[in-house]
Amino acid sequence: MKAGVITRVDGKPGEVYYPYSVVDIPQPTPGPDELLIKIHGAALNHRDLFIRQHLYPGTTWNVPLLADGVGTVVGVGSQELEGWKGKKVLIPPGKGWASDPSGPEESYAVLGGTKHWPNGTLQEYATFSAAEVEECPVHLSTPEAAALPLCGTTAYRAVFNKGQIKAGQNVLITGIGGGVALAALQFACAAGATVFVTSSSAEKIRSAKELGASAGVNYKSPEWEKDLQKMLPKSRPYLDLVVDGAGGDIVQRSVSLLKKGGIIVSYGMTLGPLVPFTMTAVLKNIELRGTTMGSRKEFHDMVSFVRLKQIRPVISTTTRGFESVDELFEIMRSGKQFGKLVVLLGNDQAKL
Ligand SMILES: NC(=O)c1ccc[n+]([C@@H]2O[C@H](COP(=O)([O-])OP(=O)(O)OC[C@H]3O[C@@H](n4cnc5c(N)ncnc54)[C@H](OP(=O)(O)O)[C@@H]3O)[C@@H](O)[C@H]2O)c1
């Protein structure tokens, strides 16, 4: 069967860009507690770009790439699992973390392209524990379902469990073109919060408003925080929460906008591996909270929330076939996406 992998070439982390290639690998056989899943669609996350640049922990070669995906159960490892056959399921994006809100109980691994868990969604068939998959909400198309697991779980944990968002509060979500940021926007709006965004593009801010954002500013503007200050409602002229995936000077920029004791949740550092914390933020009792993807429980809770609120992940581009995946990486490198980059796999015409 086919799989999409990176192959090894010489180069230093951050300078190298490992070539993508499509290879033949043996079809896996499910263990006694596992399901054999035919993958219909898979989606990129920024981590996959970091993997190609050797900037992600555990990066390795010749392991199926990608962590987001959806498929149908076509085989089972034991009689008790027969009932799963034919079900459309969301692939678990990580393992080793059951439910502890503070972090993984065991050594945690994210799916796709690493030596920590040599499995990924960019292959024709894959095996996963039946206890780890989630039944796919019926309102989702195949690309929407493929786009959901990793970025949905990350956004859910960031907004609710770390950000403690409540109806009526003001939240800023930065870099709204990103997959996690858009999921966070949808979740915060569904929870009744008032959402502000930043982006490099006026068009992306317009699209975010169509999804429920109140207003937005361009983060390339030298004093975007002052522009945003003017947009906050008179009745609540401060932010309760910032959800950020870029890093950089987010603390300095947002400190004047946040209420006393306000929270900044950082789920990534696209700009580099440091976020300076300032004395002004200390004196204002601001909390900077790091967050990662999420537990098995948060994956489940997120899918239930998406089902309840009938949320549909935002798709930027959908391609077909393993050979098209490099195209999606190029879009991510250029930063032109607004939402998720999805590839449909297999010869069957999976429902769009
Ligand atoms: N900790 C975890 O478990 C976890 C899970 C998922 C993601 N992440 C991390 O989160 C980050 C985003 O991931 P993703 O998959 O959502 O990425 P993505 O889809 O590639 O989106 C990245 C977005 O970053 C925004 N951006 C770039 N420069 C920015 C700046 N100076 N200020 C604000 N925003 C900026 C851009 O927004 P515009 O297009 O609007 O300009 C871009 O769309 C990455 O660092 C990733 O590794 C971490």
Automatic annotation (TrEMBL):
Domain Enoyl reductase (ER): residue ranges: 11-343
SMART domains according to UniProt: PKS_ER
InterPro entries documented for this protein: ADH-like_C, ADH-like_N, ER, GroES-like_sf, NAD(P)-bd_dom_sf, Zinc_ADH-like
Domain of life according to the entry: Eukaryota
An example Gene Ontology molecular-function term: oxidoreductase activity
Coiled-coil positions: none
Annotated protein name in UniProt: NAD(P)-binding protein
Protein's organism: Ascobolus immersus RN42
Lineage: Eukaryota, Fungi, Dikarya, Ascomycota, Pezizomycotina
